[in-house]
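Hello, quick one for you while I still have it in my head. A protein chain has come my way and I'm curious about its shape. Can you walk me through what the tokens say about the fold? No rush at all, and the record is pasted right below.
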Amino acid sequence: MSTTTKPIPLPVTAVTCLEDRAHVERSAVLDLAAGVQRLRLGPVSALAVDRTLHAELTADHPATVLDVRIVRDWTPREPLSAGADDSALRGRVSALEQESLTLEREADRLRTRLDLLGRLATDLLREIAEGAGSGETDGPRWTGELDRVDEERDTYGERLRIAEARQAAVAAELREAERVLDFSEEEPAELVGHVELTVESALAGPVGLRLGHLTSCALWRPAYRAVLDGDSVTLETDAMVWQRTGEDWSGVSLTLSTARSALASEPPRLGEDRLTLKDRSAAERRTVDVELREEEIGTLGPAPVLGLPGVDDGGEARVLRSDVPVSVRSDGRAHRVPLSSFTTGARREYGCSPELSPLVTQVARFDNRSGHALLAGPVDLVRGSGSVGRGTLAFAAPGAAVELAFGSCDDHRVVRHTEESRDSTGFTQRTVVTRTVRLHLSRFSAPGEEGDRVVALRERIPVSEVSAVEVRLREESCSPVPDAVDAEGIVRWDVALPPGGRRTVTLVYELSASGKVTGL
């Protein structure tokens, strides 16, 4: 079996980005010889999942993949060349190295000089001993010579001590500078993968290879940009793609999917749930315990979680594709990829729910004409005055209605006041709670502004689920009479305000409960 050691390039040609990973496809043309041979392909990302590796050959003659695997190794650090453009840290290291070398040479010279002075002192003492033995007496000269040698030895010994101390300090500073340089400027060893492919070909010639695998450290989320221009809305659908796989995606065919390959396909096991009945006590028969609770209407999608949310696809896997080749660098940053755009007519409305917020918001409603489902995600809102902030787009199927709020109107004010009275009748023992809500709506207009503006005011009244408690809207006391009341208890008025106008809206309703009701 022949073995090719030189790596053959295996570029990324297509990527299917999932919610928390990506499926990468690579392709190349191999020039095979007849027989069995082993090829080395790559480099590829070291994050490739081995068990998902799959290779296919396409050729006019029989060719078979016998084995495919990924091998990983660490690449050594590349030395950085010194030059005039070196950083200040590298220049400091070079200066310390030069100073350390100079101090070492100086210390060697001082040790040599001290050694010579030591030998000179030894020779001088031997000369004094020999002269005294032969009867010579030259005390002043001998004393001067000994004093001069001792003085020079003390001087050079002090210089050696200073040089050694400075050399130790420079060595410590040099070690610290080299450690910092090692972390800041030298590239660490990188884990690189290669594909080892063993193939068998009946004939020699070119063969096409397509290889695919899963990889981690890649994900995507939907993002939108909505522009409100008069009675039309332009909605742009983009994909925010992140990847840190270790290799760049250059000119790839990008597919975005909401499929969750990591989830188990088996249905959950059903556990036993026993329901039992018991007789109510006499106290429980005499009373009806009720409580007030608040429920959100029309929720869709998963519960909100901290951090990066998942993709809300309405319970069905969705697939989106980019019409042009896409390049995404492996830098871990968000890259915006355009997917689609459409312009359609919009129904505008100025709405306010004073119980939740005193602001009047401009709302646009339109149909989804993108040709695909709009997944839940953030949307950048733009209208005539420019950017008005960022909102959230809920999941919308193709052709379904979409509702977006394009910021508040600063020239409107709403003030809300509530009153409550409680009354009990002695004969029927019924409790009647009357609530009155007054909404004061004002419009502050610029000079010369004309035309009425219709504001949709929404309030809510309780909805009873038990026959012992009744809720009644007192239309005769409401001013004006509500334009609509739905089954969820949402009351609506369409209030027309002229420039500089003011209106007061009054809502009155009552809760009536029998004497057996407690907790109201």
Remarks:
- The chain has four domains: 2-76+189-215, 91-184, 219-260+310-408, 412-518.
- Residues 88-133 form the longest helix (46 residues).
- The two ends are 87 Å apart (CA to CA).
- Residues 91-184 form a domain with the Helix Hairpins fold (CATH 1.10.287).
